Structures are given as structure tokens and as C-alpha cells.
């Protein structure tokens, strides 16, 4: 009779298993669907955000280049002689200076069109597979002005993809267009551009696409992911496992099809979440089986009632999706099941609430990401000693000719800035006969190039014609004090430009020979306000200017000409003035100089002899708190085989001396805590160490030097440090330590 019939326990087991399975799976699926929807919405927002970041980055990058191009066009409009007078070298210098100051704001290449012909290009295009013929083809396309275009260039010897913009150069006086300047950004193989996109969008890989062809990518072409993307573009496959693909079209006018950015992101987190849900479902089924087995042996008189109470509870909780406490049914096992269900439902509901919290957190994170912009404006102003030191080190390194030219201009600018900042100190030292002249060979053309770069635009802004008439051979090396000569020229030209409101300012130079002596002669002519005869007699006195009213009108301290006169006295030169009030002035200068027919005559032989006889292997302790100054000092010392140990304050230096021996100590003065002078006294009086101490200080006053000597210093090296300073210091070291000095 009972054959084939299930027991109540079996029925209860099966019923509980089926019902609980359905409820658990339903809630799990519902929660899973909510989570999937949340994930899909987050993926959608992430893709939109990625597209927004890409477009914003393109707009930001092109806006920076557009501003740079418009600024260049306005600057060239002011100096349209660059175009009309065929001064291509000046264009090279102008753009080289611009690129040196802000390379990020510069395009990959640029060129200028005049009368539908290629007039000038910066030379960068030749390194980017674009020859001169390609530039002419671009000109013939007759692009609209002030609009970015995408162009694919295919020539027998050239193939390139780039964005380009054309801007007119308009003469400010006549209003006519004298030329067009083109700025271009390369797309193919632009790795740095792709890496920035990759970092900004937090993508694993980034591709630039044109008509389903890859122009550039952040991965190599022989990688698997590159081949998979190629297959998607060719239509042979639709997706890449574990990757989220996002195509972002770029809104750029094109002559060669549309371009877009393909970004790839991992979806490992999504797959992991899906796996966890699957594991939770499986685990729920095993838990249900265990629960059903435990209640199998219960009797029917209470089981159904208890089961109804339990089912009612589960239905209420699953329907309302809110936490509810199970009240119990009188059977311990069912109460345990109820408690387990209560805990399970609480966990499921808590998981659902956590899912909502995660969704809100993801939305907040997306907002934070959208508000985050990469700030690049990373202009760093190094100390003047750093500029001169690093530029000196660069000058002796293996540079290209153009780089050498740029470093020379940087170094000369730093030298001149140092001279200008020290005007008052120089005047005081001259008065006290403390200023020294440092002669060295140099090319006059290098000085004139720097002068022209400064005073040509300065005069142009005042509608004053500035010109240089140089009769000195540009290959001749002149042995004199380049810094003081430059300071004299700058002071005279600054006065001429300041007091001239119309007409011209002209610098004329020549090299004259009298008997066996050479003289550098130059004159500065202007059509300014002029100077009356009475005032000419006191023009070179300190703090004097041409009339009180003119001083009020043009400004200035009146110290410039006084310094010029005193510097010329030190150089054994002379200056004369010829001026007519209301007509203009001419300042004529004559300076004796030495001429080096060959650069090797400058004392290279002496330098080589010095270098070969310098002491090497010396252990030097450098006590200097400024990192850039320490870096420069170490570089010069290591160049001549010296072993340098650096400590950044006096306390650390004294501690190092207590445990190690050194051949020489380089001591800075102005340091936090203990000064260099106090540290020197401590080393001599308390530590009783007699190691030579060379003061390495920016204090140029004689009083400070005497304090150092009184404290126990053996030698003074004045900042900014130069290579010759190190050589002189080593020569002094040899002579003081019983070593024969090198030949002079």
C-alpha cells in the first residue's frame, strides 16, 4: 500500500527544498539583475566619461596650440620684416626660443606660406617623413583659416597623418595679410600623446583609428591585443574577451576620412562579481539541502503549522524586501530554520542595500573623476647659480650645433642678468677699487645676437628702427671681459632706446689695428632727445640724467652711464659723446683687446697642461644646503677626478668629519642652524682638524671673506661657481700642500 509513496518528512524536505530554492533563487536573481543593471549603468557612464575626457583632452591640447599659434602670428605681424626682408635665421631664433621656454605648447612642426609658396619651415617635418614637396601640397589644398584639419599624406617617399591649422599673419599697419603660419600635430606613432590619453582615461590600451585602420597605438603591432583590434576593425570579430571597447569620434574637419579614439578597459571586476553571484547561488542550494535534512524527522502535528508560519514569514520578507524578525513556531528545528532564513534574508537585503550604496559611491567617484583635470603648468625657476652652472656643464657636453647655440644664449642671458643684478654692488666695488676684470676669449657675434634678440623687438614696439652694422669678422675671437663689455653695450643701448621716441637706434662696430695693438671700436647712435653741452660734462657722474624733467618722464636711476665710464676705465678704454639737443646723441667707445687668430691660442695648451697636472683622487667634503648648488659643485669636481661627499648642513658635515678623513672641505656660509663661519671655527678650535677649508659662498663682500679667513678658512670661492674657479682652487691647493704648481 505504501509502496511508491513519500513520507511526510520527504514531502516536507522536498517542499521546503523547492520553495526555499525558488525564493532564494528569485531573490538572488533579482539582486543579481539590480547589480547587473547598476554595473551596466556604471559601464555606460564610464564610457561616456572616457569619451568626454578624450574630447576634452583633444580640445585642451588643440586650444593650447591654437593660442600659441595666434600669439606667434601676432608676434610675427609686429615683426613682419621677418617675412618681407627674408630674415629666415631670425625666424629660426624666434621659434627656437619659444620651444625652449615652453616645449609642451609647441607643435610637432610648423611652416610659413607667402604668396602661395613655401617661405620657411622649422625643419622638424623632415624628421617626421614629410619632405618639402609635402608642405607645398598642403599649401595647395587652400585650407580655411583658423580651422583644424585632419590630413593623410601619401607620397612615394612620405606617409604621415597629422592635424594642421592655418592662421594668417596680418600687418598691423596696413591690415594686409603678409603670410600664413601652419601648425601641425602628428598622429601616427605619437607615443607620448597616446600615453597621456591612456593615463587620463585609466585605459589599458589606446588606439587612433582612421577609416577602420590603426594610425597609432600604445602597444606594439606584433602583440595579440593589436591583432585582435585589427580583426574587429576588419569585421572578422565583434568583441575581445575581458575587454570593454569604447569608440570616441573626434570632431575635426577631415580631408581623409574620420578619425576616432578606441580605448580598451579590463572588465575583470565585472566577471569577478558574476562569479561571486554564481558561487552564492550554489552555496545557497547546499545550505537549503542541509536545512531540509535536519528537519526531515519532525512529526506532522506541528510541522505543517510551523511550516505555514515559516512560509508566511518568508513570503512577507520576500514581498516587502525589508528586515523582519522571525517570531518562532514552537519547534526548535523550525525556529532554527527561521533564524537561519532571517539571517539569510538580512544578508541578502543588506547586500542589496550595499549594492545601492556601491552605486551611489560609484556615481560620486564618477563625478570626482569628471571634475579632475590634469594640471601641467610646471614652470620651475632655478637659482641663477643653477642656470649658469648647468648651462656651463651643458656647453662642455656633446650637443648639436643648434643646442649649443641655445645653451650659449641661455648662458649669456644668465651672465648678463647676473651683471645687471650686481650693478649697485659693482659700482660700490669700483669706487673701492675692488672690482676685477676677468678676460676670456669669445666671439663678438654671440654677444650681438643676444643684443639683437632683445633690442630689436623693444625698439619695434616704440616704432623705432634698430639696426646693427658689424664690420668685425664673425669668426674672430676677442680676448676681453665679455660680461663687462656686454654690460657696457646694454647700458648704452638701454639709454638710447629709452630716450628715443621716434627715428632710429644704431649700433656700429669695427676692429682697428694700430701698430701691433687691436682696438674694438663701437658707437651707439640715436635720434632721441639729445643732451645739452652743459649736461654732457656731468653725464658720467653717478645718479645723473639729462635734466630733471626728462628723468621724471623716462625714469631710471642715472647709474648706468657712471658704471659704463668706470668699467671702461678698468678695461683701459674711453668713451666720448657727441650730442645735439632735440636731434640725437652718439656715444663712441674705444677698448683695447687681444685677438686670438685660432681658438687653440686662447690657452688651450695651458688648460691641458693644467688638467693633466691637477691632483686627482682627493676626498672632498662638500657642506652645502642648496641642492642645485651642490649638484653643480659635485659635477665640476667629479669632472677632474675628485671624490665628493655631500652633507646639507653644518651639523651633518661636522658629524662626517668626526668619523672620516678628507683632503679638502668646501664650506657654504648661509645655512640653516650653524653658519659656515661658525662651523669653520668649531672645526678648527674644538675638533682641532687642520684639513684645508675652502669657503664656497655667495657673499661677495670683502668683509664676509675676511670673517671666513679669520675663522680659519684657507681660500674663498665666490658663487656663481665656474669651471675656472675649481681650477684656480686646485692650483692653490697644490701650491699650499707642497706640490709644484702647474705651469702658467
UniProtKB/TrEMBL annotation:
List the catalysed reactions.
ATP + protein L-histidine = ADP + protein N-phospho-L-histidine
Q: Can you name a GO cellular component term? A: plasma membrane
TM spans (from-to): 12-32, 277-299
The Response regulatory domain extends over 619-734
Q: Does the keyword Transport apply?
A: no
The cellular location(s) given in this protein's UniProt record come to: Cell inner membrane
Q: Could you tell me the EC number(s) of this protein? A: 2.7.13.3
Coarsely, its chief localization is membrane
Positions of modified residues (4-aspartylphosphate): 668
Q: How does it assemble?
A: At low DSF concentrations, interacts with RpfF.
UniProt cross-references to PANTHER family, sorted A to Z: SENSORY_REGULATORY PROTEIN RPFC (PTHR43047:SF78), TWO-COMPONENT HISTIDINE PROTEIN KINASE (PTHR43047)
Protein name, please? Autoinducer 2 sensor kinase/phosphatase LuxQ
According to its UniProt entry, this protein's organism is Aliivibrio fischeri (strain ATCC 700601 / ES114)
Q: What is the lineage of its organism?
A: Bacteria, Pseudomonadati, Pseudomonadota, Gammaproteobacteria, Vibrionales
Name the gene.
luxQ
